UniProtKB/TrEMBL annotation, chain A:
<dbReference type="GO" id="GO:0046653">
    <property type="term" value="P:tetrahydrofolate metabolic process"/>
</dbReference>
<keyword id="KW-0547">Nucleotide-binding</keyword>
<comment type="similarity">
    <text>Belongs to the SoxB family.</text>
</comment>
<dbReference type="InterPro" id="IPR036188">
    <property type="entry name" value="FAD/NAD-bd_sf"/>
</dbReference>
<keyword id="KW-0274">FAD</keyword>
<dbReference type="InterPro" id="IPR001763">
    <property type="entry name" value="Rhodanese-like_dom"/>
</dbReference>
<dbReference type="GO" id="GO:0000166">
    <property type="term" value="F:nucleotide binding"/>
</dbReference>
<keyword id="KW-0560">Oxidoreductase</keyword>
<dbReference type="GO" id="GO:0005737">
    <property type="term" value="C:cytoplasm"/>
</dbReference>
UniProtKB/TrEMBL annotation, chain B:
<dbReference type="GO" id="GO:0046653">
    <property type="term" value="P:tetrahydrofolate metabolic process"/>
</dbReference>
<dbReference type="InterPro" id="IPR038561">
    <property type="entry name" value="SoxD_sf"/>
</dbReference>
<protein>
    <submittedName>
        <fullName>Sarcosine oxidase subunit delta</fullName>
    </submittedName>
</protein>
<dbReference type="GO" id="GO:0008115">
    <property type="term" value="F:sarcosine oxidase activity"/>
</dbReference>
<dbReference type="InterPro" id="IPR006279">
    <property type="entry name" value="SoxD"/>
</dbReference>
<dbReference type="Pfam" id="PF04267">
    <property type="entry name" value="SoxD"/>
</dbReference>
């Protein structure tokens, strides 16, 4: 039994020819009924199951996944983690996630390769520097780390940045968040899966939810490709497919699905040890631990479920990279992919009860799903176990679209979704 | 690069177009008597279908809004028509 990973176990298995390792989680058949069923075996769904067991003692729980664990957006993002938002509600949410990430590898006994290498958001004019100062002030007031950098400090962080006289977007300075960084995306999903399984949570893969069991106006379970599963409460954590499942449950959401694409180059020598985002180009990039340059940008302009990017946005992202780092013009791009993101009018997530009682929502993260996994899981577990909001999730309830109390981060911090 | 059919200008590069809204949404009237829930529904809720869909797009070059029938999985465009001519 090598349930707990440690240097000692690794050494002992080395001597025994690595014959003693066990699968990290079971693959059980679904039971006819659970206390809670979570739809979606990505980061948010698995984290929800883990915190239901750990924080609330609910262990008769199943995670239902259409494909394989982390095969959706959790495996299709660019792994950046940050909390450099504008509104207090947003910083409370994303900084909660960042704090949980800081202890997550140790807590899960799984190496999620969290690397706090910092994020610099670069401004290109005096006017943009004033906006940058405003965001830094807001972040500091909201209790997260932020620093206003001048141009020299930005070039110190990323020496290869374009400082030529013909730069279309000259560097005037930027916003620095040092606690931000990147983590291994698959490992986050696998770590939560293994830890949830350790609490007795059933993780059911290759099982598609085809409908909902509704009794007396209340959600009483799900219909799946592997039979009916009854549940005391159901959580929905399916990112880009939230609208599809909401339609099966009989309601609509304020969500439009888009593709968000990213690219990765061939591996090269270490040359960039932070995450850089240009306000001017909308492109951001960093160097992976393998040496690849990981490049991302804004949403594709065409509503889509295709999970593949379209060429106009690819051109925009890559031309942004060339403006920022002219020397990267020699890089060969290895591969390109896209995730399916659920975009909400105010660019903030939806966490809370759905219009169907007994069914709870964790969706609408848009381009920010990966960095919020621990918080999304924690808050949805709180909702499912107690039936009421955690104080951090309250502002993100679906009712804000009727009350008008939107958390408009697209206007506040100029994020890309 | 995909080409979208503008009913007025013919097939043009996709970068000339902007997605506007799902088709079939009509403004609730009389506006003064419409409640917050109904406004929220009109302004924000979407069917967001996976597969065939009918959408309103604008061709930014000529400035005309029009109806386009499209598949959100394959990106195949079935056709487009001027507003008001479809029903």
């Amino acid at each position: 039994m090598t349930r707990r990973y440690s240097a000692f176990n690794l050494f002992r298995e080395g001597l025994r020819g690595h014959t003693g390792w066990q699968p990290a989680w079971r693959s059980p058949d679904p039971k006819p009924a659970y206390d809670a069923v979570i739809i979606g075996g990505g980061g948010h769904g698995l984290a929800t199951a883990y915190y239901l067991a750990k924080n609330h003692g609910m262990r008769n729980v199943a995670v239902i996944e259409k494909g394989w664990l982390g095969g959706g957006n959790t495996g299709r993002n660019t792994t950046t983690i940050r909390s450099n938002y504008f509104y207090p509600e947003s910083v409370a949410l994303y900084d909660f996630a960042l704090k949980l990430y800081e202890g997550l590898g140790r807590e899960l006994n799984y190496n999620i390769m969290f690397s706090q290498r910092g994020v610099v958001t670069v401004a290109h004019s005096e006017a943009e520097m004033e906006i940058a100062a405003r965001i830094v002030n807001a972040m500091q007031i909201n209790g997260t780390d932020a620093e206003l950098l001048g141009p020299d400090a930005v070039f110190d962080k990323a020496p290869l940045l374009n400082r030529g006289p013909k730069a279309r977007y000259p560097v005037f300075g930027g916003v620095w968040q040092g606690r931000a960084g990147v983590a291994r995306h698959d490992a986050v999903a696998w770590g939560y899966a293994r830890a949830a399984d350790g609490f007795g949570v059933d993780i059911v893969q290759n099982c598609e939810v085809t409908g909902f069991i509704v009794e007396n106006g209340r959600c009483a379970g799900v219909e799946t490709s592997r039979g009916s599963i009854r549940a005391g409460a159901v959580g929905l954590a399916v990112a880009g497919h939230s609208g599809v499942l909401a339609a099966k449950a009989g309601f609509a959401l304020p969500i439009q699905s888009y593709s968000l694409q990213a690219m990765v180059s061939e591996p090269v020598k270490p040359c960039l040890d932070t995450v850089v985002l240009y306000l001017g180009t909308g492109t951001y990039l960093f160097q992976s631990d393998k040496g690849e340059i990981v490049v991302g940008g804004g949403l594709d302009r065409v509503p889509s479920y295709a999970q593949r990017g379209n060429p106009p946005m690819q051109r925009t992202v890559l031309s942004g990279m060339l403006e920022m780092f002219p020397s990267f013009g020699q890089l060969k791009m290895l591969r390109q992919w896209a995730g399916n993101v659920d975009v909400v009018p105010d660019s903030s997530p939806i966490i809370g009860p759905s219009p169907l009682p007994g069914l709870f929502l964790n969706c609408g993260w848009g381009t920010g799903g990966f960095k919020s996994i621990p918080a999304g899981g924690w808050l949805m577990a709180h909702l499912i176990a107690t039936g009421s909001h955690h104080e951090i999730s309250r502002p993100f309830d679906l009712d804000r679209f009727a009350t008008g109390r939107l958390v408009d981060e697209a206007a506040g911090s100029g994020i890309a979704h | 690069m995909q080409r979208f059919p503008c009913p007025f200008c013919g097939p043009r590069d996709e970068t000339e177009f902007h997605f506007a809204a799902e088709a079939g949404k009509t403004r609730p009237e009389p506006a003064g008597e419409v409640g917050a829930e109904r406004w929220a529904e009109y302004l924000h809720l979407k069917k967001n279908p996976k597969g065939p869909t009918r959408e309103i797009w604008v061709h930014t070059t000529c400035g005309e809004f029009f109806l386009m029938e499209r598949n959100t999985v394959t990106h195949e465009v079935v056709g487009s028509s001027a507003l008001g001519a479809e029903s």
